[in-house]
Amino acid sequence: MYRLVPVPGESSFMGFPISCFNFLLAGVQEIWWNITYVDDANPDGLFERRVIGVNNTWPPPPMDVNTTDSLLVHVTNSIDKPTTLHHHGMFFNSTSWMDGAEGVTECGIPPGESFDYVVPINSSGQWGTYWVHAHASGQYVDGLRAPVVIHPPKEVHSYDEEFTVILGDWYHDEHSVLLNKFISIANPGGAEPVPDSGLIYFAQNASYLPPISGTSPSSVTSAVGFNENATLPFEPGKTYRLRVVNTSGFAMFFFWIDGHDMRIIEVDGTDVEEFPIDMISVTVAQRYSILVTARNDTSSNWAIHANMDTDMFDTVPDALNPNVTSSITYSSSASVTDNGFVDEYSTVEDTLLVPSDKINPPPSTQTVELEVLFDTMDDGTNHAMFNGITFNSPLVPSVFSELSLGSNASVASAYGPTAFVLNHMDVVDIVIKNGDAGKHPFHIHGHKPFLVGRATDYTSDDPTLNPPISDNQTNPVRRDTVHIPSMGSATLRVVADNPGVWLLHCHIEWHLEAGLAVQFVEAPLEAQQQASRVPQVMYDHCQTLGKPISGNAAGHASTTDLSGWRLGPYQQQLGWHAKGIWAMTGCVLTAVLGMVTVIWYAMGGSISEEEMEHEVKEELDRKARLKGKLFGVFQSGNRS
Amino acid sequence: MGKNLFSVPIFFIVFRETLEAAIIVSVLLGLAEQIVQEDPDRISGINRTPAVVVEDSNDKGESGSDSSPTPPDAVFEDDEVQRKRLIRKLRIQIFSGAAIGFLIALAIGAAFIAVWFTQASNLWAKSEELWEGIFELIAALMIFVMGITMLKMDRAKAKWRLKLQRAFRNSTVRDGEAQSGKWALFILPLITVLREGMEAVVFVGGVSLGQPATSIPIAAIVGLICGLIIGFIIYEFASRTTLTIFLIAMTNLLLLIGAGLFSRSVGAFQEHAWNNLLGADVDDAGGDGPGSYRVQGNVWHLDCCNPEDNLDNEGWSVFNALFGWTNNATLGTVLSYVFYWLAVIVVLIFMKFNEGRSKFFGVESAAGTRRRVRREKQAEQTNEINSASVAI
């Protein structure tokens, strides 16, 4: 799978013949990513904007890795803010600091600095479809995202050829601009920025498929075909594996292909038994592999549909086309058959999927309940909360707290108000209850939990709507990103076998920024045994960025003192408080004073009837005289 | 319900204007009787150099014509019957004048309000809060003036008596024709009632703009009836003291409403600014609770008791109309409420001082000095008379 020929548009640096390294450094695939801004990218053909790319190109190159290799990503940060790379779904067993979650596992790579991410694919026992993206200040929404495909020596399912289908929503404004509008007192309802368009593009063998010949896409991204300009070449009779990955910041996609049947064979890196389906729903960060058998006739090409779920959008602007189409090409001379609309969207019932590698989860030893809530907070902005607490990135990355706090590392409060400490090899049922009106994709780092149950209404007593979780589960599906509809819940069973600190969050980037996250501090004492393996450069980066590297979340050697760390905002406390009571008292007091003045004015110092009449008469006389004078002047003026 | 069918400010405005008109009409009635008693010729048309007589009595007349001499009863036996007939005739004139004035005012008022609510309502439909704020501000200021001048209404009787006498006299003198005196008693109440009616229309128009049209009729009719009843009671039975107490109560109620309206107008302006800030997302911010109001500058917010909740306001709208209650108070609404009352206090203190009824840190106003001098003079005169009588 190693690339031997430089991909057009990429720097020669990137296209360096890696096979040489392979020969020298057996078992390590090295990739050099220089993270740069790329101006005037226009993948949707509607708007040119600055994006964050790699080696001055966009989109960032796809990664293809064999499970026999370890992946080593040399990252240089050439943008003007700290960045990170998160290999989504990878375990990083006992090396949590490689996870790339800014604020939790590292401080971020400062501008101009470099860092080597080691992804121990050869030891993690993971293969399938993943993706890599920035996990710092929403940079992946600005473009820093790419698919990662990991190939085992032998695939469970057999097929002739494979493609990666990359879906993504696309904004014309930069994330930071939109974020300022989103978390703002002008947006108390928390309406998320609506994407300006959707993207679909394809990759194979670590490079993107070029546009259909004859089309003339925008020059910056001219090497890659998007949407109508992109197509999948199919040959009759062959069976294809399509790895569908949604790299969106916000939107869920519904994906189907006209004239072709689909069978799900992989979900978030877990091979599953073939599951026929007409349409798949892919939330942000989810992946599915589907098998598609090509038709036997080449008389027509067929439309590929990827429709954004507009139910998630506050409004659907007139200018937005939420329905993205691409095509499967059998013959370049044939026309595309597009069956257009579907009657109804349907979501994948992932609990019905059966993993090929059968594992029965151990019974749970404890339960953590997390209830999702959004509200306008006491600063007037809208934020998200788990159990009523909005997440704030700690000042000290939690991994470094875990490694530096000694025996205090087992105290959850040291990591801030939204952390749970798990003992090594605990089996935890994490129940995520979505009390919000919207649907959310929840992702836990460092694990691929068993999805042991779902409720359609977690508040219900009805066992059909809110079934009890059985301890004895038979091979439930395992996935790292789980979709939970409004008022529904999902129970994730996690075996705490991965010392470190792992974030659980909504993968809608707006919601992560709005605080919809918690941390799981896993096996702190076991993690500390690995402390010496942390690259020194990570601490240097923190110091470059002016952040502390030890102590609790606020940098103090304490389990409770979080001073200097700005938490909140908090939920509003409505009702009568001191301020209101004082104000009300003031209002009543001045009103009473005013009324007393009215009484005082009307009473006392009175004038007798006679005096009153005299004064009125005087006043009237005065007026009459004035009038007479004016009249007289007028008359005399007339005479002369 | 309360807010939609009964507008409290409109009730009070109509009530107040009716009361004033009633007082004027009652003064006129009394005046007519008085004129007939002392000088029937002016009305009946017999030329007996009337102007001089009236003028004399007025120039002297500290306490009107009560002290002036009446023609001796013995002169004409028929006079008594004739006078009664005359008085009845005059009363009919006055009442018909008042009735016609009222009808004209009603017609103009109805037309005015109809035009407002059909034509002008388009004007503020777009930014309702802004208009509501402007109208509430106008209403609050009007009520301020009205409430404070109302306190002087115990002097209205005297004022109107003199004014009408003068007007009546002028009309007869100037025309030199006896017929016009007859018309004066028709035209004066007509104009008076019309004037008060138009005033009421303007006030009602100003206040009602922020409110649904359905809230006007009942409030106006009830205000009218109450005004007439109270006006009659005051005229027939009440002493000046009871009138004063009544006026105090009324003024305080009016000012409570006015302060509430002022505070609400500030609230409406802030709401308008808030809606502008939200822009397209304004729909999301309805109702109560987090997200429905601006946190910055908020003083209290209750997740209940919303007077603007048309479905379930449980009487909070009445509380709102009377006292300006809101479940969402801001610095602006609280301070405006307080400052309205402070303005009332300052103005009243100044007025009482200016009228010479109170000293301010020992300083006396011109009117006060005049009155004191006059009192002292009178006291001297009585003393002189007393001492003179003692000397005799």
TrEMBL record, chain A:
GO terms for cellular component: high-affinity iron permease complex. InterPro entries: Cu-oxidase-like_N, Cu-oxidase_2nd, Cu-oxidase_C, Cu-oxidase_fam, Cu_oxidase_CS, Cu_oxidase_Cu_BS, Cupredoxin, CuRO_2_Fet3-like. Residues 40-154, 161-331, 415-524 form the Plastocyanin-like domain. The chain crosses the membrane at residues 581-602. Pfam families: Cu-oxidase, Cu-oxidase_2, Cu-oxidase_3. GO terms for molecular function: copper ion binding; ferroxidase activity. This is Laccase. PROSITE patterns: MULTICOPPER_OXIDASE1, MULTICOPPER_OXIDASE2.
UniProtKB/TrEMBL annotation, chain B:
It is a multi-pass membrane protein. It comes from the Eukaryota. The keyword Transport applies. Signal peptide: none annotated. The keyword Ion transport applies. The chain crosses the membrane at residues 6-32, 92-118, 130-151, 183-204, 216-235, 242-262, 329-351. It is found in: Membrane. One of its GO terms (molecular function) is ferrous iron transmembrane transporter activity. Pfam families: FTR1. Residues 55-75 are annotated as: Disordered. One of its GO terms (cellular component) is high-affinity iron permease complex. Its main location: membrane. Keywords: Ion transport, Iron, Iron transport, Membrane, Transmembrane, Transmembrane helix, Transport. Belongs to the oxidase-dependent Fe transporter (OFeT) (TC 9.A.10.1) family. This is Iron permease FTR1. It comes from Tetrapyrgos nigripes. The lineage of its organism: Eukaryota, Fungi, Dikarya, Basidiomycota, Agaricomycotina.
